[in-house]
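Dear colleagues,

As part of the handover before I leave the project, I'm documenting each prediction I ran so the next person doesn't have to rerun anything. This entry is a single chain, and its sequence is reproduced below.
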Amino acid sequence: MSLNVHHLNCGTMCPACARLINGKGGWLDPAQLVCHVLLIETPKDGLVLVDTGIGTHDIETPSRLGQPFLALTRPLLDHHETALAQVERLGFSANDVRHIIVTHLDLDHAGGLPDFPLAQVHVFAPEFNSAMNPTWRERARYLPSQWAHSPRWVQHDGGGENWYGFRNLRPIPGLTEDILMVPLVGHTRGHCGVAVRTDTGWIMHCGDAYFFHGQMNPAHPHSTLGMNIFERMVQMDAAQRIHNQKRLLDLVRQHGNEVQLFCAHDVVEFQRYT
């Protein structure tokens, strides 16, 4: 029985200057970014979320997101966009979400964790360690109040089988082997992608391993000035980020008919699935 995958936008953001960020539109027009989240219906393992976007607690108390994030990204903070609201509109409840896999724990990816307190939260061990013991550079990106409810953490580490040349982590206990965590460090010290096998082939949520759809253009990889600047501002390991972007581009060039990639915030990629 195949997996049923829903693509959700769990946090529209409207930073200044569409031309600089999206590569089109006016210089004075707001840009548009999304928080691309997956909701996966599995035959035996309940619902699985990949990332959670901005959560209900963030919307009820925006100040906890911090003024720098609010000023830079200008999120809409619409309750209807939360993962919880969208799960409920599909006829499910919060308790039906049994697993959450986070690409990383940045505040715009982990905001919905408190909305699903019974779910196991799967995270790459280096990312968990970074979030629990952040360096001074990392303190602004992680928001401890998003896990103050003591989530059911499940840390993953160690080698797994080869997946298109990438090392994937060992199978996730309690989950189908059609869902894989793939380390893609660089943006954070424990960043990973999440690959999902569907009826039409593999898709991979690359999180913030890249930011603009043009970066995965096999013939002419490119980005916008705004996203180039931003991804350098928030990277933890430039060499690893660049290395993994090259590997992802090679994956598209060699296996683009078998694997579809998308990142967390690109609206063009999100619209391909909605």
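The chain has one domain: 4-271. The two ends are 23 Å apart (CA to CA).

All the best with the project,
I.
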